[in-house]
Amino acid sequence: MYGRRKRDRVLTALWGVGILFGGLASASRWSPARVTPVQRTITAVVTARELLSPDVVALTFADPDGGLLPSWTPGAHIDVRLPSGRRRQYSLCGPPGRRTDYRIAVRRIADGGGGSIEIHDTVDVGDTLAFEGPRNAFYLVTDEQDVLFVIGGIGVTPILPMIRLAHQHAINWRAVYAGRSRDYMPLLDEVVAVAPDRVTVWADDERGRIPTAADLLADAGPATAVYVCGPSGMLESVRAERDKHADAPLHYERFGPPPVVDGVPFELELARSQRVLRVPANRSALDVLLDHNPATAYSCRQGFCGTCKVTVLAGEVDRRGRAAEGEDEMLVCVSRANSGRVVIDA
Ligand code: FES
C-alpha cells in the first residue's frame, strides 16, 4: 500500500529480510520523524458518524473514559477489527496528531471483501470499535520544501493531514484532487479550506475526461517531491511519468492489491481439505483462496500486515512479502511459487 519509488530496488531487497505497513518503507534517506507502532488492541467508542459522499462514511471515535489515544503522524493507519473478525486498515484523517479522538473515512466497496459494507451497515454512534496501531509507513518528510500531493478519491484520507502538516511547516505545497465528480470527492472542502489557491480540483464531469498523469503532475518540477494516494491505475501512471525524472522523490500509498508482476502459474495444495487449486500467472494465491473460501483471512493484500500468513508444508515459495516470512511461511496475498506446487496447512 505504501512506497517510495526511488527506494524500490533497495526495498525489494530489504523486504526479503523483513523490514516492513508496520515498518514498511522504513529505509529512507529522508529520516522522517517516526512514531513507535502501538501493538496492543485498543477499544474505542464511536462518537460521530457522517456521510461524506454517497459512498463514503466517516467515523469518529474516542477513548470510552475520555483518555488520550496513542500518538500518530499524518499518513498513519490503524488496523480495525470488525465484529465479524475481519481486519481492515484505514488511514487517520483528522487534524494532525489529534489524540482526543480519531477519524477514519471508509468507502463502500460493493464487490470487496465485505469489510466496508460491514462498517457502513452496522457501525453507528455508541458502538465500540477495536483497533491496533497507529502505524505509519507513508509519512510526510518535512524537510522537503517543494511538494505536490496527488489525490484520487478516497486516497484523500492520509493526504489531508499531510497537507495540514505541510502548511504548518510552511512547505511550498500544491495539491491536485481528482474524482469523477465533486459529490464523489470526500473531504474536498477540507482540502480546499487549507489554502484554496494551492489546490487544483479535477472533477471528470466538469473537465469532460479523466486526467492523464501529465495533467496530475502539471505542477511538479523534476525535483518536486510527489505524494500520491489513490486507485492503482492512477498510482501506476504517476509512477511511470515520474520515472522520466530519475531523481524525483515519489511517495505513494496504494489502495487495493498491486498487480502481479512476473507471475507464473502454480498449484496450491490445501493439506487439510485435500484440494488443489490452480493459481494463474496474473492472480494472487489469496484471490484463488478467496474464490474457494470467502472467509480466508486477509487485510492489506500487499504483503505487509501478515494477516494472510499460512504455514507451508512443502514446496518452494517465491517470497514477495514485506512482513516477515519464515522458511515455512507464506504471505498468500503476494508470495507465490515459480512453478510446481506449494502445499499449505489449510
Ligand atoms: S493480507 Fe496483509 S500480508 Fe497478506
From TrEMBL:
Origin: domain of life: Bacteria
All copies of domain FAD-binding FR-type, residue ranges: 39-141
Cofactor or coenzyme needed: FAD
Database matches in Gene3D superfamilies: 3.10.20.30, Nucleotide-binding domain of ferredoxin-NADP reductase (FNR) module, Translation factors
Xref: PROSITE patterns: 2FE2S_FER_1, 2FE2S_FER_2, FAD_FR
Signal peptide positions (record): none
SUPFAM superfamilies: 2Fe-2S ferredoxin-like (SSF54292), Ferredoxin reductase-like, C-terminal NADP-linked domain (SSF52343), Riboflavin synthase domain-like (SSF63380)
Keywords associated with the record: 2Fe-2S, Flavoprotein, Iron, Iron-sulfur, Metal-binding, Oxidoreductase
Keyword Oxidoreductase included in the entry's annotation: yes
Domain 2Fe-2S ferredoxin-type: 266-346
GO molecular function, one term: metal ion binding
Protein name: Oxidoreductase
